[in-house]
Specification:
The complex is a heterodimer of chains A (352) and B (279). Chain A has 352 residues and is α+β, with helices and mostly antiparallel strands. Chain A has two domains: 203 residues, no CATH class; 139 residues, no CATH class. In chain A, 36% of the residues lie in helices and 21% in strands. Chain A contains twelve helices and twelve strands. In chain A, the strands form two sheets. Chain A has an eight-stranded mixed sheet, sandwiched between helices. Chain A has a four-stranded antiparallel sheet with strand order 5-4-12-11, with no helix packed on it. In chain A, a hairpin with a 2-residue loop joins strand 2 and strand 3. In chain A, helix 7 crosses helix 10 and helix 7 packs across helix 12. Chain B has 279 residues and is of the alpha/beta class. Chain B has two domains: 94 residues, Beta Barrel (Elongation Factor Tu (Ef-tu), domain 3), CATH 2.40.30.10; 125 residues, Rossmann fold. In chain B, 23% of the residues lie in helices and 30% in strands. Chain B has eight helices and 15 strands. In chain B, the strands form three sheets. A seven-stranded mixed sheet of chain B has the order 10-9-8-7-11-12-15, with helices on both faces. The longest helix of chain B is centred in the last third of the chain and has 13 residues. Classes of the chains: A alpha+beta (352), B alpha/beta (279). At the A-B interface, strand 4, strand 5, helix 4, strand 11 and strand 12 of A face strand 13 of B.
Chain lengths: 352, 279
């Protein structure tokens, strides 16, 4: 049997063995929320969690990061590129939805004539240790976007939580060589593998939110000017929680930060959001998306219409963070329902 | 693959004020590294992300033509933080450039066609590039007649006067200048660009219109061309949009599923009609 196991209490061994080689990121509890942080002490790892508040996307695409640093010498400028992009990173405990988001991010940043070297280098040097979802949240809908609470494909090593032990499966070549190095892992028994299969089935069955996104995309493509967008955007307060907590959102702003006294500084990028009116505001004062209705529509269209057109997949992994984060309960499930109602109503008209 | 966010370094070689109020200047830049200049292979209508390191970066259309060897020019109006910093530059200051970016005017497709150039205000810069390219000895025979309709608010705002004078001396290009309101000593047309398009009534036969200007000018000029039986495919527009990266990653310049930075900035009216009205 290829599968291995290790006891949860031995997680310190894993950390100890991998920390010299990798920046080791794991779920930790910070101010009551789960977040992926770089750790060196096993006590920091939190294994009892559903999912993190901020997706682990921020390990490879942080809220704020340096593009390059510069210094002035008279009128000359010297540019210093980042040297930390080759660091080896390991992210432990990534849920399957978030692991899948790394694939979407990688495809997006690699698409077109210009590749985002900063993200792609970090991705290349990152190892993802996935962890199956025994108890999907009520807001989860990964099975509607082509995912599964036990999906392994986008991980390097995949773990199933069997109570006191983790079942370990090496998925990618990177994962296989990593598992090979962990000689202290024990072989799994057939009962362990069967238990993981049962858990996967139970988890899948517990997901009750289901959408036909092929239909959603079709309805969106045909109803850009539909009055439903007015209704959908009415209660939105533009707080942007949905985009800032989204594992597939990639928009950023670019800013120069100066250290005036030392004639140096750095160009950074920081997360930006299509829900802000400043996002598209031009210096002339012209704004192509001046109102909430256009901004709310842009987010939904981007995930479920533009993404399928440009990259042949949905720009959503079904993690449900935008659902739980919305402070006015203008959440995705209700938005999708309203969009699908357009189709139902037009169907009624035809049959009447 | 090099990091696409790292600018090439250039130096300000010259600065020329283009108008009386001195808020539009044309900057000529010199590459620090000759090899990088040679690799900067562009077509008219493309843009670059240019920056004053420490102040920020912004997308600006390339005003020079690839036929003007040894130089690269940008015409910049003083508007916000970055453009104001440009206006405070001295000769020899360092400027970062990333580019060329965007699709540019389709110079191959324009071959054999009559070209009607319609521009308004300081957006004329990439049209300058296009006209210079077509008038160049190497290319002139590839293209048909050129008509330039160029409008400004008042006479003091007319860019590239020396160049316009030179072009007027030629018999293979027609120049129509207009300003919004009457002025003493102005002997050219008076009225908005759209009205002048109507008056000049350029023929759509074997022709393409290239349009660049403020959104309202683009729209009204398009309407007039449509009335003159121009087809949507014959009308090309260069759009402007808020951009940060210029390479399709930062997100904000999307119009529907298209990005102005990589799918544009040049779109035909036929393409624009298939896109949402979010520009």
């Amino acid at each position: 049997m290829d599968e291995k196991i290790f006891a949860k209490k031995d997680i310190g061994k894993l950390l100890e063995e991998l920390v010299p080689e990798y920046k080791f990121y794991a779920p930790t509890k910070i101010k009551g929320n789960i977040a992926f942080k770089e750790i060196t002490d096993v006590k920091e790892i939190e294994l009892d969690y559903l999912n993190s508040k901020v997706p682990p996307k921020d390990v490879l695409f942080p809220q704020k990061e340096i593009i390059f640093e510069y210094k002035y010498e008279g009128k000359d400028v010297i540019i210093e590129e980042r040297k930390d992009l080759e660091d080896k990173i390991l992210i432990f405990g990534v849920r399957p939805c978030d692991a899948y988001s790394f694939k979407l991010l990688e495809d997006f940043f690699a698409s077109g004539d210009f590749q985002d070297d900063i993200f792609l280098k970090k991705r290349e040097n990152a190892t993802i240790i996935g962890l199956g979802c025994n108890t999907p949240r009520q807001s989860c809908f990964c099975t509607s976007v082509g995912g599964h609470p036990f999906q392994k494909e986008s991980t390097d090593v995949y773990l199933s939580d069997l109570g006191d032990i983790f079942l370990v499966e090496a998925i990618s070549d990177k994962g296989k060589s990593l598992v090979k190095k962990l000689t202290w892992l024990s072989d799994a028994k057939k009962a362990d593998v069967d238990k993981a299969k049962d858990l996967a089935k139970q988890a899948e069955e517990s997901i009750t939110t289901k959408f036909n996104f092929d239909l959603v995309t079709k309805v969106l493509d045909e109803n850009f000017e539909h009055p439903v967008w007015q209704e959908i955007s009415e209660s939105c307060i533009g707080c942007s929680s949905c985009t800032f907590l989204c594992p597939t959102c990639t928009c950023f702003d670019v800013i120069d930060e100066n250290d005036e006294y030392n004639n140096r500084g750095r160009r950074i990028r920081i997360w930006d959001t299509c829900q802000s009116c400043l996002y598209t505001l031009e210096t002339s004062g012209h704004n192509p998306r001046p109102a909430k209705i256009q901004r709310c529509r842009n987010r939904i269209m981007h995930k479920f219409s533009y993404y399928p057109s440009n990259y042949d997949c949905l720009g959503c992994v079904g993690c449900g963070r935008c659902i739980t984060a919305c402070p006015v309960n203008n959440e995705l499930r209700l938005i999708i329902d309203k969009i699908l109602e357009i189709e139902e109503k037009s169907g009624e008209k035809v049959s009447a | 693959m090099p990091n696409p966010y790292i600018p090439i370094l250039t130096k300000v070689k010259s600065m020329v004020s283009e108008n009386e109020v001195n808020d539009i200047k044309t900057f000529e830049l010199e590459f620090v590294n000759e090899e990088e200049y040679k690799a900067f292979d562009y077509v008219p209508g493309q843009f670059a992300e240019i920056s004053i390191i420490g102040k920020g970066e912004c997308p600006i259309g390339i005003a020079s033509s690839p036929t003007e060897e040894g130089t690269i020019k940008f015409t910049i109006k003083k508007m916000g933080t970055v453009t104001s910093a440009f206006h405070n530059c001295d000769i020899g200051d360092t400027i970062g450039i990333r580019g060329p970016l965007g699709n540019g005017w389709p110079m191959e497709e324009l071959k054999g066609k009559n070209i009607v150039v319609i521009g308004g205000g300081f957006a004329f810069s990439t049209l300058r590039s296009l006209v210079l390219y077509v008038l160049d000895d190497k290319h002139r025979k590839d293209y048909g007649n050129i008509t330039v309709i160029y409008g400004n608010r008042d006479s003091s705002e007319v860019l590239y006067r020396d160049l316009l004078e030179e072009w007027e001396k030629r018999d293979d290009i027609e120049i129509v200048l207009t300003i919004d309101r009457e002025e003493e000593s102005w002997t050219r047309k008076v009225g908005f660009v759209a009205a002048v398009v109507k008056e000049v009534a350029p023929s759509s036969e074997n022709a393409v219109a290239v349009v660049c200007g403020p959104p309202i000018m683009i729209k009204t000029a398009q309407n007039e061309l449509e009335k003159l039986n121009w087809k949507d495919e014959q009308i090309l527009n260069s759009l402007e949009m808020q951009m940060k990266c210029g390479i399709g990653k930062c997100g904000r310049c999307n119009i529907g599923e298209k990005f102005v930075c990589i799918d544009g900035p040049v779109f035909s009216l036929a393409e624009l009609k298939r896109m949402p009205k979010e520009h």
